[in-house]
Write a structure and sequence with these properties.
single chain, two-stranded antiparallel ribbon, about 230 residues, 12 strands, about 40% helix, alpha/beta, binds NADP nicotinamide-adenine-dinucleotide phosphate
Length: about 230
């Protein structure tokens, strides 16, 4: 048994409601079901919610409000342009829970994808936190393509997938850490919500690189791979 599998098995079962019934709802929801969590898929269309829930063997399906009220964690898996309004509408239900925000605020441009404008702050995650002030918010899971979450044990080049996250509260950070570990991945805390804009921008940059035929994972070799030069770093 690998250390990672052992750590995954140590984590406790969570109840996770999902807002949205599309690709990310199915991919992340499926990963969480495999990790032993209870998942409820919520959508504005009952038939879509039922279809996605059946596809991933979720514990159930329901409305957006029912998904928000289901458990300690709530995944925001809707278009970035919709997230703030949904958080505002569901704020009383989201109070005391952790919202996992995987959205990527992106618009096309002649130069490739660019960040889209958000509502009042510098990131969707901070917008959600402002709209639902009694919820904890975590920016996470937005950098990888949905297909990565369908892998039973995402690991590449002998290393488990690292999942960067920015959390607005200590409770939200602890939940993210436990959830990511339970998936067999490596949690990578990247600070609080003031840094969430960096994750959103990184996702847009990576998508632009993939769309232009490049390989985003090749652009960030560790300075440790250039021993000697590291002494000159500031
Ligand atoms: N796909 C990826 O690889 C990927 C990777 C990282 C991050 N993301 C981000 O994850 C989020 C979801 O992406 P996705 O690929 O899962 O999209 P998707 O397959 O298009 O699903 C979007 C979901 O949002 C729902 N929705 C749309 N407008 C809504 C509204 N006004 N109120 C309530 N629900 C609404 C849709 O419901 P209907 O079916 O009723 O329209 C659908 O269930 C996006 O923010 C995206 O940027 C995606």
């Amino acid at each position: 048994m690998t250390t990672h599998t052992a750590r995954a098995m140590e984590s406790s079962t969570m109840r996770i409601g999902i807002l949205g019934t599309g690709s990310m709802a199915a991919a992340l929801g499926g990963a969480w079901v495999r990790a032993g969590h209870q998942v409820l898929v919520g959508g504005r269309d009952a038939a879509s919610a039922a279809t996605t829930a059946a596809r991933i063997d979720a514990a159930g399906h329901g409305s957006l409000t029912e998904a928000a009220a289901y458990g300690e964690a709530v995944l925001m898996a809707v278009p970035a342009s919709v997230a703030r309004g949904l958080a505002l509408e569901l704020a009383p239900v989201l109070a005391g829970r952790t919202v996992l925000d995987c959205t990527v605020p992106m618009n096309p441009s002649p130069d490739g994808p660019v960040l889209s404008t958000v509502g009042g702050t510098d990131s969707v995650a901070a917008d959600i936190a402002a709209a639902a002030p009694d919820a904890g918010v975590v920016k996470a899971f937005g950098i990888c393509h949905e297909s990565i979450w369908t892998l039973p044990h995402p690991a590449f080049e002998d290393a488990p997938l690292a999942v960067p996250f920015c959390a607005g509260t200590a409770t939200a950070a602890a939940l993210a850490e436990e959830l990511i570990t339970s998936m067999g991945c490596l949690p990578l805390p990247c600070g609080g919500l003031p840094r969430a804009a960096l994750l959103e921008a990184a996702a847009v940059l990576a998508i632009g690189i993939w769309w232009s035929g490049g390989e985003a994972r090749h652009i960030l070799p560790s300075p440790a791979l250039a021993p000697g030069a590291i002494d000159d770093m500031p």
